[in-house]
Amino acid sequence: MMGLLSTIRGKKETVIGNGIGSAQVGPLNAKTKKLVIQEWPRVLAQCPELFTEIWHKSATRSTSIKLAFGIAENESPMQNAAFLGLSSTIQAFFYKLIITYELNDDQVREACEQLGARHVDFISRGFNSHFWDIFLVCMAEKIDETLSSYMTEEDKKNEMILAWQRVVNCIVHQMRNGYSDRRKQQLGGSKGGANNGF
């Protein structure tokens, strides 16, 4: 799991299943794109509630995420309609990137940077960009579990897991870039143009 967290920050090695592979953050190659696009319907057929489960798992791992959504410590995130409703928004976003845009580099980058920049508006409600780290880990675990539930050939399964990790890492990395750029602009504007090293 620490390997995956290193990947979040742009390092190259990550643990997948029982092996180690490279899930670099950068442009996605054609093979990675093709694998994820083709596997999308099977993944969702195998686990129709994929994004709900990932979103729920994210909240159960972080009291800060729960607090940002106004969920009491002893309240189940699954009982909070506002929180639960976001899982379909997240799924729709991934559908747009993977299926509609077919993981086109420019369209994905623009959409992710825009969404990441919009997250700055949620800071006042408790959003922290580290929430993406938790989401990314939960997504990697659930994708691994889902693919492992129906893919039996180990090499193909590991290749698919790695492809999904690369795509998700790329998406989160670009969202983080949009978020950071907007934060820098806001901090620079509020400090008379100073960058403050952020």
Automatic annotation (TrEMBL):
Species per Swiss-Prot/TrEMBL record: Caenorhabditis nigoni
InterPro entries from the UniProt entry: Globin, Globin-like_sf, Globin/Proto, Mb-like_M, Oxidative_stress_globin-like, UCP025926_globin-rel
Encoding gene (name): Cni-glb-10
One GO molecular-function entry: oxygen binding
CDD domains per record: Mb-like
UniProt keywords, alphabetically: Heme, Iron, Metal-binding, Oxygen transport, Transport
Domain called Globin: residue spans: 27-180
Family as reported in the entry's similarity comment: Belongs to the globin family.
Protein name: Globin domain-containing protein
